[in-house]
Amino acid sequence: MIRTAALTKRFGSILAVDGVSLDVRAGDIYGFLGANGSGKTTTVRMILGLVLATSGKIQLLGQPMPGAGRAALTEVGALVEGPAAYGHLSGRANLGLLDAMGKGGVRRTRARRIDEVLEQVGLAAVGRRPVKAYSLGMRQRLGLAAALLRQPRLLVLDEPTNGLDPQGIREIRELLLQLHASGTTVFLSSHLLAEVEQLCTRVGVLDRGRLVLQDDLAKLQAPTGRTVVHTPDQDRARVLLDGRIEHRDRDRLVVRGADAAELNAMLVSGGVRVTELGPERRSLEQVVLAATDTSSHQVGVTR
Q1: Which backbone phi and psi does 77 adopt, to 5 degrees?
Q2: pTM of structure
Q3: Which among 184, 200, 220 is the end of a domain?
Q4: Average pLDDT by consecutive 10-residue portion of the chain (303 residues)?
Q5: How far apart are the first and last CA of the chain?
Q6: What span, in angstroms and rounded, lies between the C-alpha atoms of 115 and 110?
Q7: Domain annotation covers residue 291
Q8: Range of the domain at 21
Q9: Are both 66 and 157 inside the same structural domain?
Q10: Are 257 and 190 part of one and the same domain?
C-alpha cells in the first residue's frame, strides 16, 4: 500500500528525513511513531505528494508518486496536520465542497455519503452548525469525515485524536477498528504510544528523521524467555530459585526461564505465595525507548 526507498528530504542545511524505507502492507493498521519534530509529518506529506522529496522513491497503492498521484489518491483518504475548513459554512457544506472539488466523487450519492460519514464520526447532530462554532475536537472529527467520504482503500492519518477527550479518543479507535475489519488499510502517524499499542498491528519508529525500527507489533512484544512473578515472599522465592532472578522490584520478580507451570509448581510447593505469574513481554514504550536509545548511541559514535 505504501512503499518508500531511501526517502530523504532536506530543507536547506537541515536533514528532516534521512533515507526512510517504509513497508505498509494491505490489511495493516500501521503505527508511525516518533516524537514531535522527528520528521513524521514531512514523511507523510511526501507520501501524499504534498511535498517533493529531495531523493528516494515512493509507491502509493503500487503507483509511483508524485507522478501517478491523480490516479492513486482517488483511493486514499487523508487527514494531515489538522483539518482545514470554511468557518462560516456548516460541516455538511464543507464536506460537499470537498467532495465536489475532488476527483471521483459521485454527485448523486453525495448527500447520502455525507450523512454516513457525519454519523460515523459522531457529528450527525451538528452537521448543519457553522464550523466556526466547532471545538478543536469537533474540527478533528470533521477532518476525519472528509477523509472517509470516498470509502478509501487506504486511510492516512496524522495525529487523528488531537484535541479529543478520552471518550472521543475511544470512539475514533473503535471506528478505525471497524474500518479495518471492513478492509481499509490504516496508516496512523502518532506520538501516543498507548493508542498505537491498543490499535496497531505493525509499527515503524522514526527518530530524528531516521527509521530505527519497523516490524509487526506481535513480534516486537513476543515473550522474552523470562517469567514475571508477583509474590509477597521474595526472600523465600530467592532461595528456591537459586540465582535465576534477573530483576527484583518490590513484589515483582523477573525470572530466567519460560516454563511458567514448572516455576509455579516449584514456588507453591516451597511455600511461596504467588499472586500473579506469566511470561514477560515488553511494552511498546520499552521497545521504542530501546530503539531510539540505540539510535542515539549510533549517531553519537558517527559524529
Answers
A1: -105, 140
A2: 0.85
A3: 220
A4: 98 96 97 93 95 97 92 92 86 91 72 92 93 90 90 93 86 91 95 92 96 96 94 93 90 92 94 95 93 68 33
A5: 35
A6: 9
A7: no
A8: 2-220
A9: yes
A10: no
